[in-house]
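Q: What would this chain look like folded?
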Amino acid sequence: MVAPTPRAIVALVVQHPFLAVLGVIASLGLWINYTRFSTRRRFASDLARWHSREERGEKGGDFKPPQMPYTIPWIGNSIEFFGTGPMDFWAMFTTKFPAKMGMYRLILGGDVMNLTMDQTAVRGLFNSKFIMRDEFVVDILVRSFGMDRKHAIVFESNKEVKRIPHEYLLNTDRVNELTKKFSEVLRNQIRQSPAEQTVNLLEWVSQNMFFASTTALFGSGVFEMYPDLHDDFWKLTPSIVALLMKVPKFWRPDGYIIRDRLVDGLARWQDEMLKRSGGEPEDPITGESWEPIYGARYSRARQRMYAKCGVSTRSRASADLGILFALAGNAVPLTGWVLLHILCPQNGEPLLRDIKAEVEAALKPDGSGEFDAVKLCNSPQLLSVYHEALRRYVDLVLARNITEDITFTFDDGRKTTIKQGEMAMLSTNVSHHNPESWQEPEKFCPYRFLQGGMDNPEEAARCPVFSSQDSFGKLIPFGGGRTGCPGRKFAQQEIMAGVAMVLMSFDIDVITYVDGEGKPTEEYPQGMSHYPGSGVLQRIGDVKVTLRRKHTA
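A: My prediction, written as structure tokens:
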């Protein structure tokens, strides 16, 4: 039989285009079904071998992470990843895929991701010198925050990008300055509030903390130039991951629209502040700790770096939007969750009473109303609730580029190698809800991080001793190692100061929970639907309270 020539095939397509289309559709269908069948069969085989190994009690040896089954090549597991509920993908993952396996391979948008959950392997990843996040950060700046790619590459390759956060966000004196300004702004907000008001507490916290945090960082001019910054910012946060994963504009147009509006608004602020500063921000080292044009030393150091990099006003605005998301975008909602659990009637009066006592003990004796940051951040029961909120409500995906082949050792002695050019992926949700690592992982326990807190919470509360022993590699809200979040120190002080000021400034009467429409309900506020890895869970619902301002506030 003679094979048809290319010319004959073209002629057939021209004469019978409908049949040609059907042929293409049939071929795609066969390809997709074959992919679905083969990946599921391969995964079932890998899982069966692993179970057999477990039954025989085998330890050590080489291990190849199984590939999660998928249906469409290149797209891979992206369809499952972009579920509609806040925990849909991770709930499915933890149900179908044993955590003891330690590592799985996913395909997201064509990229091979090695999702790691084994505690020993996570520690090895954090300690490795062959992991980088530069490419990942460039993608975030470009896709999520609208920065020009050329500018993002120049920006991220500048050594100042890594030096500035370490100098201004990890240095104790600089962080204390920033926290002091944040507290000053929030205290003024509280003093200007009505003597008595009935509010939805988490929304009130969001409005006032966001204003204080952003003013402390960027100066007082930002809200003057962009009055709707708060509302627009919180509209963007659910779309951050969708933008990063290149979800088409026709599928999620609201994310692209609100991002561009935020960048435009911050660009207007950039232009105006540049005029007011005479073309150059005040020196971050020799100048004041805070000034109204560009705010904190950290912000001024970044503005000077932008000028050296030669990036446009719009790219500067994109970079500042990224900083706003990293700092305020996570600290503000987490403050709300911490307060909610402290005030929650189900946790009982003793928790509120004891934390108020800790907070009061951290007040400076000079009558200024300021807190001793060291005492406040070492208050054991408040610290326990803070860490439990990090465990329960932080949903981040940490992706790192592998620059050289890395061999990881697992808890049971197995070894696996991730090849250069692939990516390692950590999920705080998977790590923080892993039943192999945590007792009753789905339960919020305010005493979990006190010694004996899970076994005898009442006894632990009587003589509280904070303990995060053995949590390295399990509790990873800020990542870890060389690529850990440099803003973690300020985030903790900001959250604890925010909680302390609310508790000390008001007598608070809890009225009722309210749902997403503001109607009374008996249901506790829940996390908002979002894509996996979107940061601290935004809430649906709130708690209605009466705030009576104390005379000492």
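The chain has one domain: 138-549.
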